[in-house]
Structures are given as structure tokens and as C-alpha cells.
Amino acid sequence: MSNWYWLTAWLPSLLAIIGNGLVIYLIRSRPRLRTLQNRFVLSLAIADFCVGTCYYPGHVICNYLLDSKCNVMIRDDIAVYMIYSSVSNLCAMAIDRYIAIVRPLRYLTLMTTTRAKILTTIAWMIPMVVYFIPAICVSLKLFSINFKISVVIWTTIFEFIPCTLLLLATMQVIIISKRHRRRDANFSQLTLRQKASTSVIGSVVAIFLLCYAVEVYSSFCHFTSLCTPNDDIYNAVRFLIIVNSAANPIAYALFKRDMKRELDKLICKNSFTKPSLLSRRSNERSTSL
Description:
10 helices, GPCR_Rhodpsn_7TM, transducer, membrane, transmembrane helix, globular, single chain
């Protein structure tokens, strides 16, 4: 791979690490953000943070620092596990927002704290059981599997099915949200929350579908003889997957009102800290004079 590719690829990796790290910090440090909805946002942010740290940084650590001590197959298994975990956590968040918008009056009954914990746990366990454990056992040469059949299963579960279901669910969410806004001419608090939720899940899913479109195309080419993917396609797939993880925090900052409010407070607090210190020092100097 050319040097420009690796230099360019580091940018979304850093954005994914910084952006998702900031989301994790805000949710964990701000009591107001510890809501049921943000439990799913936190879980997805952790997965996206791991995606940003695993692939390109992992490649550099393996190839240039550890060299022969690094098992490349295990490194790739960990990176793919984090990518699949990001996909499954996005599906979990989409389920939560689908219930909140389609069944708003029954949301607190249907989505309890216990069920939210179970759903986020399942989002991490499915990729581990279906992909990571078999893949890591193969990498450690504990047993062998039919790789072609396994790739078909993994691609279907973590690419084709999520893309299809997320597209259909998001379209229905948008239609229902618009219908509720037309019915409520005064835009009640519930309708405004639905609008904000629709913007968040709609933008995150749209980014996901755009970034994974090339991945789906490359997988389609891999399983059929209609087209032949080349190295440029595979490089684009890797790059766009990291871009997807980097773009999610931007969507939260733009459309998620509680996150935007806390982010504004954090920025304002930091911006006023330095002037206050400078003014304090100037006052001390004037007093001493």
C-alpha cells in the first residue's frame, strides 16, 4: 500500500479515537447524560473507539514495533471483531430508537434498564460467539473451519442483514415521525424529542449505509463472478469503515440535544478558564504595584 494511503487513513483513525473518547468521557462524567438512550450511545461509542484504535494503529504496532512477535491473524481478528461489534451495537441503538418513536407511550414499559443492559450485552456477545471465538481458534490452530462457508455466514449476518434491516427500520421511523409532527401542530415536547431522535438515528444509519456500500459491493463481487474487486476496493473498504466510526460522534454533536448541550458547556468552560487565569494574574500584579 502506498504511503499516501496510510497517511490519509490515520486522519479518520484519530478522529474516531478523539471523537468517541470524548463521547465516552461526557456520558461517564455527566450525570444528566446517564440516560437509557445514552446507554446504547455509550456502547456504540466504545465499539467505535476500539475500531479506531485497532486497525491502523494496530498495523503500525505489529509491523514496526513488535515485528515478528506480532501475530497478524490475531490482530486482524480483533479488528474485525470490533468492527462487527460496532455494527451490532448500531442495530441495538436502532431498535431502541425504533421503539421510542413507533411506540412512544409504551417505551418506558418495553425498554427497561435491565432490557437495555441485556440488549447491549447481546450486541457484544453475538460477534464474539459467531465470529471472534471461531476465528481466534483458527488463528491459534486449535481447529480448522471451512473458510468460504464461514465468510458467507459472517458477511450475511454482519453486513447484508444489518444494512437491509437498518434501511427499512429507519425509513419507517422517518415516515412515522413525520406523521406524528403533522398530527401535533403545536410540536409538543414528545414530538420534539421524536424529531431529535429521528435526526440522530437517521444520520448515523445514513453514514453507516454510505460507508458500508463499498463493503457490500466488494462482498458481492467476492461471492459472484459478475465483478472482480481489486486492492483499491479493499483499501477503500477499510478506509470507509474507519470513517463510519469517526463520523458517529459528529452526528451526536450536531443532532443530539443533550450531548450538544454538554459539549457546549465543556467548550465554554475551557474557553473561559484561560482568560480568568490571565485576569487573576494581572490583578495580582496591579495589586503588588
